[in-house]
Structure formats: C-alpha cells, structure tokens
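Weekly sync notes, structure subgroup
Attendees: PM, AL, DS (notes)

Item 1: joint prediction request from the bench team. They want all two components modeled as one assembly rather than separately. Inputs as received:
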Amino acid sequence: MRIATWNVNSVKQRLDHLLSWLQERQPDIVCLQETKCVDEAFPREPIEAAGYNVAVHGQKTFNGVALLSRRPFDEVTPGLPGEPEDDHARFLEGVVSTEGGGAVRIACLYLPNGNPVGTEKYPYKLRWMDRLAAYAADRLALEEPFVMAGDYNVLPAARDVPNPDAWSSDALFLPQTRDKFAGLTALGFTDAIRAGSDAAGLYTFWDYQAGCWQKNMGLRIDHLLLSPQAADRLAAAGIDKHVRGWDKPSDHVPVWCDLALEAA
DNA sequence: ATGCCCCCGGTTCGGGGA
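Output from the run, pasted for the record:
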C-alpha cells in the first residue's frame, strides 16, 4: 500500500498536476493540504474518475485538508481534538480496510506555521503540537498500522535546511518547535524518509521567492510518521522532487512510502 | 532590514504563506 502526502497550495490551481501525479505515482492513499476551498467547491469528480474516494475538510480561502483513497473509507473524522474554538481546517482522520482484512488509520494534517514568532501564531502552533501529541498517544495505544502524514511546518534537524543558522529564530526551527516534534516521534513513531537515509538535502519544499528552487535552497517539512505496526512493514519511501520543476507548481512536492500491509 | 513569488477574495490591494 502506497501512502503519500502533498501540500498542493490550492487544489483547484493544481488539479492538472494532481491528476498527472496520481497517474504517475499510483498511490493508494493521499493526504492533501492547503486545498484552499470550501467542501462544495472541491473538484471531486475528476479525482473520483481517476479511481479515488474523496473525503474533504475545507474552508474558504485558507488551510483545508483532504484524503483520497482507492479503497472506500470505513470512517472519516474532521478536526483535531482539544481546542473546540479552533476553526482552522487542518486535520482529517480516515480509516481504510486493506485487502488482507486489516485496516490502516491515516491522519492528514496541516500544522500551523507559527510565524511571526512573538505573535499569537507561535503559541497556537505549540498548543496544536501538544494536541497532536495527545491524539497520537491515544491512537498508538490501539497498536494498529497508523500513519500521520502532512505538512508539519517543522524542520526536525539542521540537516533538513541548507542554512540552519539563518533559521535559528524561525518558528519552523526554534528549539521549542524541534523539542515538541522530537517528543512526538519519541512516542513511538518512525519518520519514513529518515528510516532510509540520514542524508542532508532531502527537501520537500522550495519557496517561490528569491530563486530558492534554482539554488536548491529547500526545506524538509513534509513528513510521514509511522506507528510501530506500520513501520514494521515499511518497504520504501521517497520524495517526488521533479514535480517542483513542472509548470506553475506547488511550492511543496509529494512525499510517499510503501507499506507491505497486504502481506500482513 | 525588507521584499522577492504565489494564491485567495474580490476587485486593481490586502492577508496569508514559510
């Protein structure tokens, strides 16, 4: 089973890229972030025609997440628990049955950026990370294949950014941000990309500005975190960097992993 | 130190992203 995550930066602007990439990569489950449209405006039909069930949790203008799955969803639940007044569409959980009679649980997430530090945006990010850790601990107790995938807006380590000193006071790289991410993974998750390589330069995002793509000044901020029951079945993982070179691209590229769930 | 570029809503500019 191939599971992917991609911040598309507007699903309507990126529909042709999405359909091309689905055809090329053939994922079974996809987590989308920054869909930037209300549920009624989500381009369901062309995605369903490509063979996917669609679950959406959107809002006007900003944020918005969606799950695509070749197999039907057993459950879909929008929203991260813990702060009822939080109205950002940043989280969507789904459960999909596998061929072997088991199931995989997927959380699609768009973690707050947190900049500029010094405003309410950064404590909101930190609270969101605390809420995510509480949710994750609850789900890990189920001891099932479980994947939390999305745009974490976190640089886990210095090797995930070309110039870490320049990012030392940024919300994506502050020690408190990294500590919370480390605490989350320490609950028992495996970073799918890091399971296969500790290399620097495995970026998933390149800013539109300042020629970042041309200079390969990227960031690794999109992650797939695997529960032990998922990590035991990890067969491959990758970053579809070439998608950033397409015409009018998202600033993020797809990240994916293969889990041998059918064999379980 | 700030903006570069891109997207949205809604109109020709401001908010947001990272």
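Discussion: The domain at 2-259 of chain A is CATH 3.60.10.10 (Deoxyribonuclease I; Chain A).
Action: AL to compare against the crosslinking data before next sync.
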